[in-house]
Amino acid sequence: MKAKNWTKLKQRMSPEARARVDARVAKTIATLPLPEMRKAIGLTQQDLAARLVTGQGSVSKLEHAADMYLSTLRKYVEALGGELHLVASFPEGRKFEIGCLADE
Q1: What's the predicted TM-score (pTM) here?
Q2: Whole-angstrom Cα Rg for the chain
Q3: Is the CB of residue 52 less than 8 Å from the CB of residue 79?
Q4: Taking CA 30 as the corner, what is the angle to CA 29 and CA 31, rounded to the nearest 5 degrees?
Q5: What is the CB neighbour count within 10 angstroms for residue 57?
Q6: Which tens digit of pLDDT belongs to each residue from 29-71?
């Protein structure tokens, strides 16, 4: 199977199809696991460990942890250059940002 140029393929799509694809890509990117988010930003575990002043092994354990403190997750995201926002979403569409992530 021959690979196709994504730009050319996307140009042939209808605006509606492009919008659906773009929305799906955005959703996929928005729900990346921690290691994939770090890689998308262009950092290695070693790079991130240096920013967090810890070892690469600690970053690996953190990225594969089933559970962690919000403060730890906040530090991880900030070391990547981002901000952590915690949002509670409800079935009727209401959303509330939870503001308990201040510095300790």
Answers
A1: 0.66
A2: 18
A3: yes
A4: 90
A5: 10
A6: 567 789 999 999 999 999 999 999 999 999 999 999 988 999 9
E runs forming strands in 1-104: 86-89, 95-98
Residue type, 18: R
C-beta of residue 49 within 8 angstroms of C-beta of residue 61: no
Q: Tell me which amino acid residue 81 is.
A: G
Contacts of 85 (CB under 8 A, 6+ apart): 97, 101
Length of the chain: 104
Closest CA to 63 of 43, 83, 86: 43
Numbers of helices and strands, H then E, in the chain: 6, 2
Place of tokens 């600690």: 58
- Which residues are paired to 59 by β-bridges? none
